[in-house]
Each structure stands twice: as structure tokens, then as C-alpha cells.
Amino acid sequence: MTGCLTFPLRVLFSLLLIAGLAAGWIFRDELLRVGRQQLGMAEPPSPIGAPDPARLASGRARMDSLARAATDSIVLTPAEVASLVGDQLARSPAGAPESLTVELGDRELTIRARVATAPIPEAIRDLLGSALGERETVEVGGVLGLRRQGEGEFEVRRVRVKGFPVPRELVNRLIGRYLPQVDGAVAVFAVPAGITGIRITPGGAILHGRGRR
User: Fold this and answer.
1) 204 CB burial (10 A radius; 0-12, 13-18, 19+)
2) Which of 23, 60, 61, 153 is a Cys-bridge partner for 147, taking CB atoms 3.0 to 4.6 Å apart?
3) Cα–Cα distance between 38 and 40 in angstroms, integer?
4) Which residues 6+ apart lie within 8 Å of 98 measured at CB?
5) Angle at 205 (CA atoms; ends 80, 169), nearest 5 degrees
6) What is the greatest pairwise CA distance in the chain?
7) Cα–Cα distance between 80 and 84 in angstroms, integer?
8) What values do phi and psi take at 139, rounded to 5?
9) Please, which residues have CB within 8 angstroms of residue 69's CB and are 6 or more apart in sequence?
10) Quick count: other Cβ atoms within 10 Å of Cβ 59?
11) Is 73 helix (H, G, I), strand (E, B) or coil?
12) pLDDT tens track, the chain, 213 positions
């Protein structure tokens, strides 16, 4: 009799445990935020930045200063990175994007923006299977680093149009329509010659100068 009673209780306990774990995972960000508040810990900086004229000027000045002074390194904020990216994209064959944001990760960078859809190849339109407006949100993610002295590179590894992933074999056909100076799946861009290394982190872009040992 005791066994008959304990089995349903065990099942109920297991279900409650699973539900609790699921709720903890779903609301993990909020729980972490509350926990940090209770412990008096500061909120971590957001890895997402948007272009701003002041941040563009400060990012350029700090990069030039690093190259000239041969200091060890600087860290560009997400807003400074987004501003520099936006400056590059202003030269896009498809025209300047709207609502641009940049999200920094571990060595990776994700660009999101609303762009004109006219340059999107017909093959990609057919795969998406949905009507595209004149402008839609496009997400481009990949690894950013230093290609050689005076030149950086952004290796595109994934693209989404209106939330739908673009097949890898079609990525090259798309990014050349939107990113200036593209070599296959790699977009190249100029950097001050004194910069010897670039590493992307969620907290910012670490740039190394000649002073690095």
C-alpha cells in the first residue's frame, strides 16, 4: 500500500522538479539580474551598440592614437564598433542601411539592419518563399579580425533575411550586393597600419598596437 502511495508522489516530485528547472532556464536572465541586485553587483555592459557620430569620432581618434603611440592596446565599446561598421556600410553598393545595430560575441560580430531588398538575387527570394517589402531586416554574422597590416577582415558565416537563414552556398552571392570590398565570403576594410591585432569580445573590441609583446 505504501508503495502505491509513494509512486505518484515521486512522479509528482519529478514533474515539479522538471517544471522548476524549465522555469529557471526560461527566466534565467531575470533571475541573474535580481541576484546581482541583491548582491550589489553592477549590471554587465550590453554587447549591443548602435552608431553615433560622437562614438564614430572617438573610435577613429583612439585607433589613430594606438597606431601612432605604439601603446599596448585599447578596447572599443560596442557603440564605437557599431559606428565604425556603419561608416563602412555607408559605402555599400545598395546604399546606407537603416536601424543598424552591432552585437559583439566571443570573436564573433553580428550586424543587423534594414536594407533595400532590390539587390537580393532571385534564387534567394525563391527559397525564402515569402514576399519581401522594399526594405527588410538582414542579419549578418561572422568572425572579425586582422587580415594583414593595414587591412581587417570580416568572414561572413551566416546570413538571415527577414529571419530566414540563407543557405551557405548562396551567401557569397548576397553579401557582395551589400558589403563593400568583398572577396568571396570575406569583407575587407582598412585599419591604421599600426594595429597588429583585433579580438572581439562581448565587452568590446580589443585592438593591439606595436607596443604588444
Assistant:
1) buried
2) 153
3) 6
4) 113, 114, 115, 135
5) 100
6) 83
7) 6
8) -115, 125
9) 209, 211
10) 24
11) strand
12) 555 556 566 666 666 667 666 655 555 555 555 554 555 555 557 899 999 999 999 998 888 888 777 568 889 999 999 999 999 888 887 888 899 999 999 989 999 999 998 888 888 888 776 678 888 899 999 999 988 888 889 999 999 998 889 888 888 888 888 887 788 888 888 888 888 889 999 999 999 887 644
Answer for the pair 63, 192: CB distance below 8 angstroms, yes or no: yes
- In angstroms, how far is the first alpha carbon of the chain from the final one? 74
DSSP E strands, the chain? 48-49, 73-76, 98-104, 108-116, 135-148, 151-161, 164-165, 182-183, 186-190, 197-201, 204-208
In angstroms, the CA 150 to CA 169 distance is 29
CB 150 within 8 A of CB 142: no
Question: Beta partners for 187?
Answer: 154, 182
Residue 82 forms beta bridges with which residues? none
12: left (phi over 0), alpha (psi -120 to 50) or beta: alpha
Cβ distance 150 to 193 under 8 Å?
Answer: yes
Q: Is 204 left (phi over 0), alpha (psi -120 to 50) or beta?
A: left
Length of the chain: 213
Neighbours of 40 (CB within 10 A): 6
